[in-house]
Every structure is written in C-alpha cells, then in structure tokens.
Amino acid sequence: MTTQTPAIQLRNLTKRIGRKTIVEDLNFEIPRGEVFGLLGPNGAGKTTTIRMIVGLIKISQGQVLINGIDVEKNFEQALRHIGAIVENPEMYKFLSGYDNLVHFGRMVPGVTRERIDEVVKLIGLENRIHDKVKTYSLGMRQRLGLAQALLHRPSVLILDEPTNGLDPAGIRELRDHLRNLAAEENIAVVVSSHLLSEMELMCDRVAIIQHGKLVSVKTIRELIQEDTEVRPVLFDVERAEEAQQVLAPLLQGQVCEVAADGSGLLVQATREQVPTLNAALVGAGFNVYGIRTVAKSLEDKFLEMTGGGGIV
Amino acid sequence: MFNLIANENMKIYRRPRTWIMVGVLLVILAVVAALTNHFQVPPQADWHSSVQQDIKESEKTLADAENPLPERVRHQIEANIKVDQYYLEHDINPNAYTGWSFSKDSSQLIILITIFTAIVAGDIVASEFTWGTIKLLLIRPVSRSKIYVAKYIATLLFALLLLVFLFVWSYLIGGIVFGFDSLNMPYVYADVDGAVHQMSMVGYVLQTYGYQLVDLLMIVTISFMISASFRSSSFAIGLSLFVLFTGKVIVGELIGHFEWAKYILFANTDLQLYQLGQPLLPSMTLGFSVTVLVVYFLLFQAVAWWMFTKRDVAA
User: Pick from A58, A76, A99: which is nearest to B141 by CB?
Assistant: First the structure.
C-alpha cells in the first residue's frame, strides 16, 4: 500500500488568467481509498483546481498526475481513470436518463449495456431511468450525474459541490455512497464543498484553500485534536447547581454555570479537560446523560484558519 | 470516432426541432407543387410555331443596329437561338412541364436546407455550452479534436439527409403531379463555344445540386466556426444567415468597381458561371475560384478548431 502510486498528485499547480493568479502552487497527494475534501470559501479556487485536474482549463504551471499519468501530456490515458461532476450535473434534458448514460458510455471503451444497468441499479434509479431527464428532480439528476461518473469504473472520482441542492436525506445517502466507494472499490474520492459540517462527516482528510493558496492539509482527526482552545461544553447532568460546586474547584477560574434553559451545566473547558470533568461528576455520584461541545466544529476551525474568509 | 458521430446524431435526431425542419421541407415542396400545377400554362398544341416565333424575335433583337447589345447578352441570345433550333430538329417540346422540371425547379429549395443546416451547425457546439453539458463531454478520454470532427461530420450528414429527402420527394411529388413519363427527356444546353449538347435530366438535376452545395458548405462552415468560437448559437445562426443573404449582393456592388472584390468568398461560390462561360471578371477562372474557396474553407476550419480545442472551459 505504501509504495502504491498516489491516485492524484498535484505538483506546483498554478493557474493564472492575465495578471491574476487564481490558484497558486498547490501541492498534495491523494491515495486510493481516501475521501479527500477541498475546503474553501467561494472564489478560493476550488473549482478552478478541479477544472485543471480534469483538463477543462489549461494549467499555467505545474503538473497533475493521475495514477502517475500526466493529464496535460497524456490526456486520453489519464482521463480514462477519472469520473467527475463539475459543478451541477447538467445532462441532455431531451434525452432519457438511460440515453444520457449510453451517450457518455460510448465515449469510453468497454462500457457495456450490462455495466450501464449495473450502475443504474447501484444509484437506485431503475424506475425512472427511461424517462426524459427534464422530468427529473434535482436529487435524481445528482444520482444520474454520479452514474455517468462511475460508468467506466474510474479509480478517481471528483465531485464539485456534490451536496448542492440535496436535502438532508440525500446528503446522507451520498455520503454513505462515497464512503462505500472509497472503501470497497478502492477509489480516491475528491469532494469540494463549503458545507463544512458535511465535509467533517464525509472526508478522511481536507485541504483548506484560500485565495488560491493551500492553507493546510490535515486529517479530520488532526483538525479536531490539535485544538487546545477553550470552548463551551454542555454537561447534561442532574442537579446542575450541586454539580457546579463539584466542578468549580477543578476549573481555574473558567466559567462554569447552569445553562440558561436549564438543560444542564455549561462549562468553558478545553477538549483535554472534558474526560477529567466527567470523571469528577460521575465520581461524586452524579448521573451524566450527555456531553456536547456546543461549538468548535470544523466550521469554526475553518473560519478561524481562513480568518473569516472574504472573497478576494 | 464512429461512436462519437453516433452520439452527435442521437443529439440531433432526438430533438423535435430537427423533425420540424424535415416536415417544413416536405410541406413547402408539396405547396410549391400544388401552386405550380395550379398556375401551369396549358400545353400548347402547336409548340413548333411558338419556338419558331421565339427564334425570329431573338434574331430581330440581335440585328437591331440602333441598340447594340453588350457582348454578354448577345452571347446569351445566340446560345438560346441554337438551343431552340435543336429543339425543333429533335422534336423536343421545351415548354412541357414534367416531373423532372419540378425536380429541377425545387433544387432552389437547397437554400432552405442551407438555412436549416446552418441552424444545426450554429447550435451543435454552442448549445453544449448553454446546457452546461460541455463539462461532462470534454472530461472523457477523447481528445477535443475528435469531438470537433465528429460534430462537423454529423452536421454534414444532416445536410446530406435533407438533400436526399429533397431529391427523392421532389421526384415523387413531381412524378405524381406532373407525370413520371418524362424519364427519357433530355436537357439541352449550349456550351461556351456555342455548341449545343444534351444530357440526361437526372444528371442535370444532380449537377444543379452540386453547384448549390458550394454555398451550403461555406455557410454551414461559417456557422460552425462562429458556434465553436463564440459559443453562442444565436450569434452563429444570425451572422451566417446574414452573410448568406447579403454576401452576393455586396459582391455584386463591389465587383464592378474594385478588382480585389474577386477575392471575396461570395464572388467565387457560383461555379456554374464558368460552365456557362460568364465569369464575373475576365481575370477569374475556375481554378482561381476553387483555390479561393479552399483557402477560405481551411481558414474557417483552422479558426474553429483552434478556438474549440485550445480555449478554457470556464463558464
């Protein structure tokens, strides 16, 4: 596994339009089997990066390698390994879903009718596949988009803003799909999004991009763990006032108060402190029904790292 | 490549618009046949004398010393006289309107095919951008050049389909309305040197098609070029049709005053002039026109190809 060529390698990837640098010197690698997130505010260069990876726009400088194959030099060979949706999955509305798949299937050698049927079943569109795409809901178009991306069994799946316009159930389903694909088919999945809470659940690693530059590449776990800041933690505990007396000595002056809505005890604590505080409560005979970090999700982390992220 | 053309064909023929065009062509053809039939002059019993009358009048015009005719018109009238004489000698009634006459006349509808094909050509690249499907189309393991060629070929196949429809329908409709019994009727014409020839009507109709195809090919290629370059189908269709309708008029205005006007595309699209021995300018030859046409064609293709394959797909 460790010696395997990464599915995607970006080397000093740069895009300039006129004097403006849209994407500057991106470097990272994505191995097979990983779900990788591209995070950034609107206009940060996520879509531009994706368009360079799939060859829709020219690379000003640097390289994109797909399974070691240079996208610019060997476009046809490299693209054989990629399935992608760039922005919205726009299909031919006057054709049926099935004909759309036939259309895209014809463009890659080896996509049989059986494979099309298999993919249709995989994304659960059997009942409507012969209807015209113009009658589809957005969710169904997303599914069809995923189907066209998977037809030729790619080893790299790239989805630009895949959760756009999906309802919560749809997002969850997509997430499970992607995790499955990564794990079972050993596909490298790249998703871009600004729906950060979704990324947190979907990805193994994220690259944070701002103003076209890479801010950092971290695993989700690292992002959460390296966090030593004090944040509000809600202990859902019985007899909150008494519990407050137990915890107060352990917290050197940190805020510890009964939540205004009576839902428990609100404590300003670091991540590290939470187990200690919990042990103290349990040790003193209090029943703890739940511990919830009120904020400091990836979203906060992200906003913090990008400094609030205005579009430049 | 075969698959790519099949894809483009699917996208053309699954759209209702395409079949509306085919329907319009058929309806217009039927209407023209009905009108022609309605207004047709009843065949004269004694056509010999009317042809003889024509010859006499032509000769009188030529002999009129007070109004000398331009060389070109003179040439034309002399040729007409020779053809008329040929009719009399071989007992061919030139005024009989037959199925083939209708086929020949309806070859004028090729301009309609030019318009329809220009619409398809103007749309075939630009609409992929309008629909957003270009982003799915160009991320396949197929080079942009191949997609470009497939789209161009599919456009020409559409023109070919309409031409076949036109030819077959005009033969059938013409045959039904005006009779099929004219298959052996020859077409008579005088060549540059004034010698009279006859050829089969099928050959003549096909030849007429051939001459009209030059315009069709050029207009369609212009539309395709604009479509691929500016990614706007309305611009492509509008501009190419504007050129179709005004190109010859503008050339007609310029050609008398400026020698360089002969390098304009539309000074060279009517190759039949050379067969008739009536070039627009004495300095123009068939070889010259063909060369100009080829240069323009290659230029249009190069621009379209370059714009389609090299530009970023950003929208």
Answer: A76
Q: What is the pTM of this model?
A: 0.82
Q: Taking CB atoms and an 8 Å cutoff, what residues of chain A touch B13?
A: none
Q: Which residues on A lie below 8 Å from B138 (Cβ)?
A: 55-56
Residue B132 in contact with partner chain A when CB distance is under 8 A? yes
**Consecutive H or E run containing A17:** strand A8-17
Rounded to 5 degrees, φ, ψ at A257 are: -145, 160
Per-residue pLDDT reduced to its tens digit, B62-102? 777 677 777 777 777 888 888 888 888 877 777 777 778 88
Q: Does the beta-carbon distance from A87 to B135 stay under 8 Å?
A: yes
Q: Which amino acid is at B140?
A: R
- Residue B154 buriedness (CB in 10 A; 0-12 / 13-18 / 19+): buried
Q: H-helix or E-strand containing B36?
A: helix B16-39
Q: pLDDT tens for residues A249-304?
A: 777 767 777 777 777 888 888 777 888 888 888 888 888 888 887 655 566 666 66
Better-scored residue on pLDDT, B21 or B175: B21
Helices (H), A134-239: 138-150, 168-184, 196-202, 220-225
- Best CA proximity match to A251, nearest among A228, A269, A237: A269
List the single residue in B with minimal CA-CA distance to A148.
B136
Cα(A157)–Cα(A66) distance, rounded to whole angstroms?
Answer: 11
Angstrom distance (rounded) from CA A105 to CA A112: 8
